[in-house]
Amino acid sequence: MHYDAIVIGAGLAGLTAVCQLIDAQKKVLLVDQEPENSIGGQAFWSFGGLFLVDTPEQRRLGIKDSKELAWQDWRGSAGFDRLEDEDYWAYEWAKAYVDFAAGEKYQWLKSQGIQFFPVVGWAERGGALAGGHGNSVPRFHIVWGTGPAIVEAFASKVLQASESGFIDYLPRHQVTDLMTEDGAVTGIQGNILENCIIRRGEESSREVIGTFEYTADAVVVASGGIGANLELVKENWPSRLGLPPENMVSGVPAFVDGKMLEITERAGGRIVNRDRMWHYTEGLKNWDPIWKNHGIRILPGPSSMWFDARGDRFKAPNFPGFDTLSTLEAIQKTGYDYSWFILTEKIIEKEFALSGSEQNMDLTNKSIKDVLKRVLPGPPKAVQAFKENGEDFVIAESLKDLVDGMNKLAGNDMLDFMHIKEQILARDREIDNPFSKDAQINALHGARNYIGDKLIRAASPHKILDPKAGPLIAVRLNILTRKTLGGLQTNLNGQVLNDEGNPVQGLFAAGEVSGFGGGGVHGYRSLEGTFLGGCLFTGLKVGKYLGTLKPEPNKAKAIEV
């Protein structure tokens, strides 16, 4: 019952590591606190976007990409400024990841049976200088089948190996401590939780029915971040982003609680870049929630006008889809934790998509027929459902009625109709020509120079107050928690380092808990498509490394009560 490796967490990073260990014919134990139907963790709920460089999909769309351009974008976005210490290994992981994304990643994913939607998305467009934040070109490759398809590619292999007895997989096993001996991690301890029948994503019982201990030559922590633990989010909130939001919606299920970070730190692992996190500014309260405080993110096109809670239009680069972190900072410095989109029916039907596998059932179910319906008049089905049922939407035929509705929804009278009207009219006057001094209008014209955006993501330029484009729509946007960018510091083998910078013997980490590699591979900002990819890459690296190690003899301990 002594294992070559124990993997904590059956999310995408853990599954990827286990698949490599299966190939190496290692004796593996996989434990997870959730029921078996939650295998794949947070990745299951994702839109399935992956950061890839110079792919056939890009080339077919006329996109010229390269490893050099991707590395330029990564460095400009990350802003690594702790290279002597906390960013040292993060920088090394970043170089390795861009090499991977521009190299073997595409063919490796294809070998796992993963296919891609033909139109490449353009996320985080930046809006500043060439060397600053943002993707210079579209790189967001949507998996055909979204998050569930990625999970299936790895979970099926793990479950088959478990059923055949090649590995042991124990759901409802919650790790509470890492066992150590002479500074080395030798195993895990924890609680066996009662079995419970719930829908995937629902909060599971924490009723304890027993305890366990298992030993191994190596323990891999792949337990995710802190996104559902709002107390930890607020505790680590950086002062540079203003005060933490009073109210936030949760973009991840309750099991993303960050508890293994503290447990691993107690065993000697070092956490770095605690103040770096990636939360979205376009969150909606889910009208049909699966987990507590469930939020959904709008994936916006470039046309909606963005106003703060007082009715002032945000300045460049704080436009929809351009610079999430800058916009988050701008929102928080207003002293309010929400903002507004104002747009038209013509904009929403082409530019609004919702993040998440369950919000894109046409892509998730791989239905070409349903995907083609997106070009028909009217918003996508999931967006229309939010329009009709979501509490954050206001719809009106006149701007005066729209502003009155916005004030009513916010429970105050901060929005002045004439102030908003003047800003919209100023913007609308810029539409009369195919050029403009308005940075957002220029960005809209630029977006439509890319065939992918022109076809499905960027509405043709029109005046917001044009009655033919109506009705008018306002959307209240909440801060939505999502990713932890800092985490356990690891070297390029995935070994967790201690405060002195040395590997903790027997201890490894992969995925979000390691800041997706090195304790913060993204630096301050994500280019998007790099979270699932980071889980895959770190899991792959750790699994391959452990697959080459020879087991240590004469060790055995397994106790389960």
Automatic annotation (TrEMBL):
<protein>
    <submittedName>
        <fullName>FAD-binding dehydrogenase</fullName>
    </submittedName>
</protein>
<dbReference type="InterPro" id="IPR036188">
    <property type="entry name" value="FAD/NAD-bd_sf"/>
</dbReference>
<feature type="domain" description="FAD-dependent oxidoreductase 2 FAD-binding">
    <location>
        <begin position="4"/>
        <end position="532"/>
    </location>
</feature>
<dbReference type="InterPro" id="IPR003953">
    <property type="entry name" value="FAD-dep_OxRdtase_2_FAD-bd"/>
</dbReference>
<dbReference type="InterPro" id="IPR014614">
    <property type="entry name" value="KsdD_DH"/>
</dbReference>
<keyword id="KW-0285">Flavoprotein</keyword>
<dbReference type="Pfam" id="PF00890">
    <property type="entry name" value="FAD_binding_2"/>
</dbReference>
<keyword id="KW-0560">Oxidoreductase</keyword>
<dbReference type="InterPro" id="IPR027477">
    <property type="entry name" value="Succ_DH/fumarate_Rdtase_cat_sf"/>
</dbReference>
